[in-house]
Known about the structure:
Layout: E1 12-15, E2 21-22, E3 38-42, H1 79-85, E4 94-99, H2 105-120, E5 124-128, H3 133-143, E6 150-154, H4 158-168, E7 172-176, H5 193-210, E8 214-218, H6 231-235, E9 238-243, E10 250-258, E11 266-272, E12 275-278, E13 297-304, E14 307-319, E15 327-330, H7 334-346, E16 355-361, H8 373-385, E17 393-395, E18 398-399, E19 405-406, H9 411-420, E20 425-428, E21 440-443, H10 447-458
Parallel strand pairs: 4-8, 4-9, 5-6, 5-7, 7-8, 15-16, 17-20, 20-21
Antiparallel strand pairs: 1-2, 1-3, 9-10, 10-11, 11-12, 13-14, 14-16, 18-19
Amino acid sequence: MVTKNARTVKAAYRCGECGHEVAKWFGRCPECQAWGSLEETGVPRSALTKVAAGAPSAPARRIHEVDVESARATKTGVDELDRVLGGGLVPGVVVLLAGEPGVGKSTLLLEVTYQWAATTGTSALYVTGEESAGQVRLRAERTGNVHEAVFLAAESDLSALLGHVDAVQPGLLVVDSVQTMSSPVVDGSPGGVTQVRAVTAALVALAKERGLPVLLVGHVTKEGSVAGPRVLEHLVDVVLQFEGDRHSTLRLLRGVKNRFGPADEVGCFDMVDDGIEGVPDPSGLFLNRGDADVPGTAVTVIVEGKRPLLGEVQALVSKSALAVPRRAVSGLDSARVAMVLAVLERRGGVRIGGNDVFAATVGGMRVTEPAADLALALAMASAAHDVALPSDLVVLGEVGLAGEVRRVSGVGRRLAEAARLGFTRALVPPDSGKVPPGIRVKVVPNIGAALQVAADLTT
C-alpha cells in the first residue's frame, strides 16, 4: 500500500549535446535547443538528495603545501603551439585539436611528436584511426618527422589503443581522431554521441591516472564548431581551433578553452612543401606595401590574443550598372561593413550609396574586431575620391552609429608594433593613453574629423 507522502521515482532525460537534465522528454533540448538529443538515463539527480559521506582519497592540504613541480608544463618543441598552450603540455592534460579536413591537423601533430621525442628524450605514440601506419610513415618522411622514439599504430578500437599504451609506455599520446575510435563496452557506431563521450571519458581517465599528455583530433561541423556532443569540450582541458583558408598557406591556431593558460592566444603557422613551420612574426604577411600609394587602402592593427598584427584593408568603389548596387566582402564582417558604409555616407558626407562597393583584407586575414572600423571607412572614402592615403599612416578606432570614434583596447601595443614596422603617423581615438616613441598621432573624435585630417595629410 502506498502512503500519501510516498514519491514516485521517475526517469530522467539527459541531452547528448550539452548534458542538461530534465524530468520529462522533450523533442528539443530546453538548454541548447538541439533536436532529438534527449536520452533516458534513469533516476533524476533531484531524487538522490541524501548522499552518505565517504572516506576521501587524500586529506585536504593547505594551498601553500601543495606540490606544484608535478604540474609544470613541458615544452613541445613547437614554439607557436607552446605559445597557445601557455608554455607547453602539463602532465595529464587532454587537448582537443579541431579543424576542417585538409587544414593540416595531422601534419602539425606529426611535427609535435617528432619535436617531443627529439627534445624531451621520451617516446611518443601516434594512434591513427583514419589512415594506415604506412600512409602516416610516408607523410612523416615527406615532412622530415621520422624519429626512432615515435611509435605508430593504426587502431580504431579503444581497448587495442590502451594495449599499445601499456606496451610502449609513451610520454605523449596522439589520437587521430576521437570520432573514429569505438569502445566495446557501449553501444553505438563510431562517431556517435555515446561512443565519443565514452572514448573521451576513458582517455581523460587514462591521462589523469598516469600523468600522460593526450592530444585528440576532433572533426568539425559545417558551421565550424567541434563535432560530437557539447560535453566533449567540457571533458577535455584544452580546446584548440586550427583554421585557415584553403587558398592560403597561412594557418592560425586559436585557443578556445585552456585550464592551464590564456584562452585567447593565437599561434601562426605556414604550410610549406615539406611540412609546417611556425611564423613568429606574421605582421608582414597581411601587408601589401608597394612603391606607389594606391587609393582605397588603409593599414590598421588588430590584436589576436595578445599579439598585435598589422593588416591592410582594401576597398573599391565603382559606378554601378545595376538597379541595386553590389556589396561584396572578403575577410570582413559583411554586417559591419554595411554599418560603416551607412555611417560614412550619413555622418561623413561621402556619397557612395549608388555605387558598387567591394571590401577585402590582404593575405587571407579575417578581421572581426571593431578596431578596424575607422580604417575601413577611410579606405572606402579614399576609393570614392580616388586619393591615396600616406603609406606611413596607420588607422585605429571603432566607429559608432552617431559617427563618433571610440577608444579601443591596447592602443599602446598596437602603435608600438606599427612603429617597429616603419609607420610614423597614426590616427587614434580620444583618450588612447601613452604614445610609444617613433610615431606621431593625431586624435580624431569623429568620422568627419578623421576624413578632414586624412584629406590634409594627402595634400
